[in-house]
User: Which sequence fits this backbone?
C-alpha cells in the first residue's frame, strides 16, 4: 500500500461537485436534441371512478400541438400485467397502466398526454383538457380503512414478512409487573427530491432509442420499457448519470418514462416529458402507518414481551409492503415477541420505498414506546436499552457480523452530554423554554447485491472505472474513484468513474444502502483483476518481473514496480502500448458471500440524541441539537458519509415535526402538493448536528463497508419525540408534532 | 398558463388607461404571487400591464413627519431602509417574518398588499372555491381548513389574508394612496381589504383601473414598545397560523396608546379598536393583555382543523403585548421566542 496515495477512509471532496455547481452536470430534463417534441400530462380531477368523456378538442386545436394521446384511441400500451411486472421494483398486485382504460385509481392520475413543439405549448394545451367523470366516493382515510386491514397474501419480493412469534408474548405481558400498550401513527410523507421526474427519449432512427430518465438504476427502466413496448434490448440504451435526489422514489419507473417512450415511438421523434411538482405527488409515498406497541418488563427493566402490530396504507391495485415491524424482534433481547403486519387499501397511488422504508416508521413506534417504558420504570432511557442489549439477532437466531451499538450509545451520550439530563419531565428549562433531552436507537440491514464493474487503464496512465449503478447524490462517484485510485496507486485526478448507463457493466437499482458495499467491492475487484493483467503484461516485458506474484508488485503513479526493487518499473504507457489497443481493461462481477450471509446477520446501528426547546405557552418546538453516533463498518469517505447522516437527520426531523401529506377526505385529493405547503425543514429548523462514526470491523465484504443511505434517518423522529416528552411531559403519539398538538 | 399579451406602461396614466380599457388586464410588478397563480391556471389575465418602470419607487419623509413608501419599493429595501427600520421597527420586523430573502427582493410594497389567499382550494382548479369560481362552493369549510379564518368569515368563504407586512401596516394605521380613472384618492388600510361576505372573489375595495401608488405611514410613535410575533408550522418560510402586531406607547407606567392587529385569522388584518382601548390608561399587565385578547377574539369560531387557532391566538396576543411592553420585540432571525 502506498501511504501517500491512501484515499479510502479520508475526506475527499465530491469529484462530481464542480460539474454540479457549475451546471455542467446534465439531468434527464436538460438533454436537448434537434427536432425534439415536448410532452405535458393532464391529470385526473377525481380520485376514484371512470372517465365518461374526455374533452380533447381544445387541446388538439391549441398552438403548436402535435398530438394528444389518451385511453380513448388505443395508444398501443398493453393492457395486461405481465410486461409491467418486469419492473424489478414491482410489488404484488396489478401495476398501474396509464391509458389502458377509463378507470381512475387515484387523484392526479394521468388522463392524457399532449405533445407539442415547445414545453410551453404542451403545458398550455394540457391545461385545456377536461373530463366528465362518473365519480365514486374515494377512501383516503387510513383510520376508516383499517377495519378492512388484511395480511398481505403474497409477500413482496425481497421484503421478509414478520418473523414467526417466539415465546408467548400475551402470557408474558399478562404476568408482567410493568406493562405498556400504546398506539402510534406517522403521517404520510412524500419524497420531494429537488429534481422532478423527467424522461427525454432520443429517437435515433431505425427504432433505436436513447432514453435519459431519472432513475436509481438504469437497467430497471430499460427492462421495463423493452417489456412493455416489445423493444429489442439491443436497440435501447438508458442513461442517467446524475440524479437530483430520489430517496427511493426513482426505484420504480413512473409514468413519465412510459408516456415519453410511447410518444417517441408513436411519433417517431425525440420527446421530452417533465412532470410538475404537483404531479410528483401522484406517485410513490411513505405510507401512513398505524402502530400498536405493547411492552412488558420486570421491575428491573428486563423486557419480558414485545408486541408490535402495524397497519400500513397501500393502493387499491397493489400490495406495497415494508419491513415495518421486524425491527422490534431484532433490536432487544426478549424471549417473547409477536409481530404482525397488515395492509389497508386506499384510493391513492401505490406507496414506495422512502429512505429507510419500514425502519424509519417501525423504530419510531418501538423507540417511543421504549421511552415510555423507561419513564414508567423510572430507569434512564439509555440504561433501559443497555439492559436489554441484543448480542444476537433473535429474529433469525444468528450472530451479528459486527455490532458496535454499545460504542454508539457511549460515544453519543458523551458528546451530547446525556448526563445533564434530569430524569423528571418538565424539570429542565431555560427562560420561557422547556428543555428536553431524548434519545433513540436506529438500525438498518447491511445488504449487498451482485454488481459488475470494469477498470480500464489507458496509455496516459488514466484509470476509468465503470459500473451501471447510480449516484443519487450519495457520493458514489467519489468513493468509487477513491477505491480505484488507491488500488492502482494513482492520484485521484487521474481516475474517472462512469455510472448510470446501460452500456456499462451491470448493476441493479441503487437502494437499500447497498451501493457502497456492492459497487465498491465490484470496483475494488475490477481493479485487482486489472492489476493482475498489468503484472502479467509486465512479466512479458521485463525479466525482473518473471517470477513476481501480485504481492511482490507495487502499483504507483508511474507504473508497476517490484516491492523489492523499486528501480524495476514498467511504465503504464509501455504496458498499454505493448498490449496493443487503447487500454488494458478488466471486468469482474462481485457476488455477496452467501456462506457468510447465511451465518451472520449484518446491520448498521445508530444512537441518536436530541435536545429540543419548547415554548411552554405557545408550543413552538425548536430542535437545538442532534448527535448521531453511527456504527456502519468502515467509512470510505468521512466527508460524504457525514453528509449522508446529516441529510438523514434533517429528514428525520421533518418526520418528527413538519412533514405530512394532507388529503381532502371527500375529494381524495392531496391539498398540499407543493414545497410551500408541504413543509420540509427549513434552514432555520435544522440545528447543530454532530455525526460520530464509531470504529467497527466488519467482514461481510472485502471493503468492510455496511452502507449509510438509510441509517441517518432511523431513530431521529423517536429521539425528538422523546425529547419533546421530556421537555413538556406530553406524549404526542402522532407525528408530525405540530404546535397545536402541544396546546 | 393561458396566453396573454404584455404591455409595459410608460406612465401611470398609460397603465390606468390600459387597465380600464381591457377588463381582463392585471397589473404585474414583482409577480411573486401572480405568476404562480397563472401557472396554476387560477388567474388567466388577458393582458399584463407591467408597471415596474413607473416612478413609484422611493421612501420619502412626509411633511407630517411620517414616511411615504412608493408602491414599487421592494419588501427587502423597505425592511432595511434606515429610516423605516429605525422609526417603524414593527413594520421592518413583520416584513422579515415573511417569505424568503429571494421573494422579499422581488416582491413590492403594493403587491404585498394585493397578494391573494393561500387557501389550498383557491390554488386547485379541480376543486370548488367561491373566491376563484364564484358560486362553485367552499371546499375549505368542510375540508382542509388548518389555515382558514376564525374571524369575519362567511358561509361563502373562510380564506385568510396571508400577508405579514399588512398586519403591521394595520397596526400602524397606514394610509394607502391609489390612482385610477377618476383621479387619486387615499384610504386607511383598514378600508382596503374587505371581509368575504357573499363576494369573496373581491379581496379589496379598489375599483377597476385603480393602482396603488404609495403607502403612507403617520409619524412614528412605536419605536420602543412593539413586537411582531408570528407562529407557523416551521420556523421559517411558512405562512402564519397566527401572527400578532403589537405596538404600545407607555408613559408613567401606563399605556397611552395601543395598537393590536392579527394575521392569519381573517380575510384581512384583524383589528378591533375596542380591544386596544381596553389597554389604554391601564398599566401593562397580563390581566389587561388577556382582556384585550378576549375582546379582539370575540366571536371567533373554528371549523375543526383550525380550532386551535383560537387559544393559540389568545396566547400569542398576550405574549406579543408582553414583549412590546417590555421593549423586547421578537427577533425574526433568532428563533427563540422571548
Assistant:
Amino acid at each position: 500500500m502506498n501511504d501517500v496515495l491512501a484515499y479510502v477512509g479520508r475526506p475527499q471532496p465530491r469529484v462530481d461537485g464542480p460539474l454540479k455547481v457549475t451546471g455542467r452536470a446534465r439531468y434527464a430534463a436538460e438533454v436537448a436534441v434537434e427536432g425534439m417534441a415536448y410532452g405535458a400530462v393532464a391529470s385526473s380531477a377525481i380520485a376514484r371512478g371512470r372517465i365518461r368523456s374526455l374533452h380533447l378538442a381544445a387541446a388538439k386545436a391549441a398552438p403548436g400541438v402535435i398530438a394528444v394521446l389518451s385511453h380513448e384511441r388505443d395508444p398501443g400500451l398493453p393492457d395486461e400485467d405481465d410486461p409491467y411486472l418486469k419492473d424489478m421494483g414491482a410489488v404484488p398486485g396489478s401495476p398501474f397502466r396509464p391509458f389502458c382504460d377509463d378507470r381512475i385509481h387515484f387523484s392526479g392520475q394521468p388522463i392524457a398526454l399532449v405533445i407539442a413543439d415547445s414545453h410551453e405549448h404542451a403545458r398550455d394545451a394540457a391545461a385545456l383538457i377536461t373530463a366528465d367523470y362518473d365519480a365514486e366516493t374515494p377512501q383516503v382515510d387510513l383510520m376508516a380503512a383499517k377495519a378492512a386491514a388484511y395480511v398481505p397474501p403474497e409477500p413482496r419480493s425481497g421484503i421478509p414478512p414478520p418473523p414467526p412469534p417466539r415465546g408467548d408474548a400475551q402470557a408474558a405481558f399478562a404476568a408482567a409487573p410493568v406493562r405498556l400498550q400504546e398506539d402510534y401513527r406517522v403521517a404520510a410523507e412524500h419524497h420531494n427530491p429537488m429534481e422532478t421526474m423527467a424522461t427525454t427519449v432520443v429517437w435515433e432512427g431505425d427504432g433505436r432509442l436513447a432514453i435519459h430518465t431519472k432513475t436509481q438504476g438504469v437497467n430497471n427502466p430499460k427492462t421495463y420499457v423493452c417489456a412493455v413496448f416489445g423493444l429489442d434490448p439491443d436497440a435501447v440504451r438508458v442513461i442517467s448519470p446524475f440524479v437530483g435526489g430520489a430517496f427511493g422514489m426513482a426505484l420504480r419507473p413512473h409514468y413519465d418514462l412510459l408516456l415519453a417512450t410511447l410518444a417517441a415511438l408513436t411519433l417517431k421523434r425525440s420527446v421530452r416529458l417533465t412532470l410538475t411538482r404537483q404531479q410528483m405527488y401522484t406517485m410513490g409515498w411513505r405510507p401512513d402507518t398505524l402502530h400498536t406497541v405493547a411492552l412488558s418488563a420486570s421491575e428491573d427493566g428486563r423486557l419480558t414481551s414485545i408486541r408490535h402490530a402495524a397497519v400500513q396504507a397501500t393502493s387499491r391495485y397493489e400490495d406495497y409492503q415494508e419491513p415495518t415491524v421486524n425491527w422490534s424482534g431484532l433490536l432487544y433481547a426478549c424471549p417473547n415477541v409477536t409481530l404482525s403486519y397488515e395492509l389497508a387499501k386506499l384510493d391513492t397511488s401505490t406507496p414506495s420505498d422512502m429512505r429507510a422504508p419500514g425502519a424509519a416508521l417501525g423504530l419510531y413506534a418501538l423507540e417511543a414506546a421504549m421511552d415510555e417504558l423507561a419513564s414508567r420504570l423510572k430507569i434512564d432511557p439509555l440504561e433501559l436499552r443497555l439492559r436489554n442489549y441484543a448480542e444476537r439477532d433473535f429474529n433469525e437466531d444468528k450472530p451479528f457480523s459486527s455490532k458496535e451499538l454499545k460504542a454508539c450509545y457511549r460515544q453519543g451520550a458523551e458528546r451530547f452530554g446525556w448526563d445533564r439530563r434530569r430524569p423528571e419531565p418538565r424539570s429542565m428549562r431555560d427562560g420561557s423554554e422547556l428543555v428536553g433531552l431524548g434519545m433513540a436507537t436506529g438500525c438498518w440491514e447491511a445488504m449487498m447485491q451482485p454488481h459488475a464493474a470494469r477498470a480500464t487503464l489507458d496509455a496516459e496512465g488514466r484509470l476509468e472505472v465503470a459500473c451501471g449503478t447510480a449516484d443519487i447524490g450519495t457520493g458514489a462517484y467519489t468513493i468509487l474513484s477513491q477505491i480505484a485510485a488507491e488500488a492502482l496507486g494513482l492520484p485521484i485526478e487521474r481516475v474517472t468513474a462512469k455510472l448510470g448507463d446501460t452500456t456499462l457493466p451491470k448493476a441493479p437499482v441503487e437502494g437499500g444502502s447497498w451501493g457502497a458495499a456492492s459497487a465498491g467491492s465490484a470496483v475494488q475487484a475490477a481493479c485487482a483483476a486489472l492489476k493482475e493483467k498489468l503484472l502479467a503484461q509486465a512479466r512479458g516485458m521485463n525479466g525482473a518481473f518473471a517470477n513476481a506474484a501480485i504481492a511482490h508488485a507495487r502499483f504507483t503513479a508511474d507504473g508497476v514496480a517490484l516491492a523489492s526493487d523499486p528501480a524495476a518499473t514498467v511504465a503504464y504507457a509501455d504496458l498499454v502500448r505493448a498490449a496493443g489497443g487503447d487500454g488494458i481493461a478488466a471486468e469482474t462481477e462481485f457476488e455477496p458471500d452467501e456462506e457468510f450471509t447465511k451465518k451472520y446477520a449484518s446491520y448498521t446501528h445508530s444512537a441518536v440524541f436530541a435536545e429540543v426547546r419548547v415554548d411552554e405557552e405557545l408550543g413552538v418546538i425548536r430542535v437545538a441539537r442532534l448527535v448521531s453516533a453511527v456504527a456502519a463498518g468502515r467509512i470510505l469517505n468521512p466527508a460524504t458519509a457525514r453528509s449522508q447522516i446529516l441529510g438523514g437527520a434533517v429528514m428525520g426531523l421533518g418526520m418528527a415535526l413538519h412533514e405530512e401529506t394532507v388529503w381532502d377526505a371527500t375529494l381524495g385529493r392531496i391539498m398540499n402538493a407543493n414545497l410551500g405547503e408541504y413543509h420540509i425543514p427549513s434552514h432555520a429548523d435544522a440545528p447543530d448536528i454532530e455525526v460520530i462514526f464509531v470504529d467497527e470491523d466488519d467482514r461481510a465484504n472485502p471493503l468492510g463497508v455496511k452502507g449509510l443511505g438509510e441509517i441517518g434517518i432511523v431513530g431521529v423522529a423517536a429521539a425528538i419525540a422523546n425529547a419533546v416528552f421530556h421537555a413538556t411531559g406530553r406524549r404526542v403519539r402522532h407525528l408530525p408534532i405540530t404546535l397545536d398538538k402541544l396546546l | 398558463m393561458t396566453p396573454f399579451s404584455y404591455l409595459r406602461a410608460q406612465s401611470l396614466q398609460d397603465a390606468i388607461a390600459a387597465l380600464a380599457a381591457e377588463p381582463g388586464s392585471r397589473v404585474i410588478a414583482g409577480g411573486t404571487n401572480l405568476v404562480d397563480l397563472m401557472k396554476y391556471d387560477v388567474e388567466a389575465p388577458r393582458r399584463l400591464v407591467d408597471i415596474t418602470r413607473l416612478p413609484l419607487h422611493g421612501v420619502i419623509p412626509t411633511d407630517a413627519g411620517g414616511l411615504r413608501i412608493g408602491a414599487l419599493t421592494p419588501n427587502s429595501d423597505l425592511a432595511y431602509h434606515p429610516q423605516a427600520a429605525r422609526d417603524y421597527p414593527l413594520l421592518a420586523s413583520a416584513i422579515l417574518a415573511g417569505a424568503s430573502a429571494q421573494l422579499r427582493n422581488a416582491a413590492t410594497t403594493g403587491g404585498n398588499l394585493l397578494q391573494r389567499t393561500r387557501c389550498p382550494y383557491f390554488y386547485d382548479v379541480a376543486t370548488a372555491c367561491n373566491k376563484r369560481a364564484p358560486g362553485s362552493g367552499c371546499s375549505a369549510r368542510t375540508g382542509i381548513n388548518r389555515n382558514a379564518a376564525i374571524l369575519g368569515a362567511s358561509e361563502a368563504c373562510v380564506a385568510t389574508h396571508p400577508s405579514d407586512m399588512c398586519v403591521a401596516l394595520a397596526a400602524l394605521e397606514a394610509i394607502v394612496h391609489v390612482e385610477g380613472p377618476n383621479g387619486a384618492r387615499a384610504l386607511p388600510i383598514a378600508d382596503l381589504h374587505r371581509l368575504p361576505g357573499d363576494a369573496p372573489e373581491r379581496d379589496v375595495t379598489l375599483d377597476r383601473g385603480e393602482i396603488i401608488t404609495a403607502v403612507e405611514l403617520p409619524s412614528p410613535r412605536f419605536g420602543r414598545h412593539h413586537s411582531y410575533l408570528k407562529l407557523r408550522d416551521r420556523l421559517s418560510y411558512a405562512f402564519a397560523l397566527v401572527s400578532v402586531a403589537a405596538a404600545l406607547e407607555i408613559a408613567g407606567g401606563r399605556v397611552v396608546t395601543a395598537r393590536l392587529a392579527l394575521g392569519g385569522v381573517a380575510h384581512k388584518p384583524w383589528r378591533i379598536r375596542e380591544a386596544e382601548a381596553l389597554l389604554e390608561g391601564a398599566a401593562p399587565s397580563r390581566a389587561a393583555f388577556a382582556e384585550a385578547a378576549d375582546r379582539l377574539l370575540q366571536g371567533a369560531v373554528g371549523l375543526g382543523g383550525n380550532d386551535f387557532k383560537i387559544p393559540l391566538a389568545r396566547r400569542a396576543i398576550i405574549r406579543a403585548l408582553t414583549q412590546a411592553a417590555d421593549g423586547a420585540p421578537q427577533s425574526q432571525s433568532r428563533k427563540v421566542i422571548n
User: Anything to note?
Assistant: Chain A touches chain B through 39 residues (CB under 8 Å). Chain A has a mean pLDDT of 97. The first strand of chain A starts at residue 37 and ends at 43.
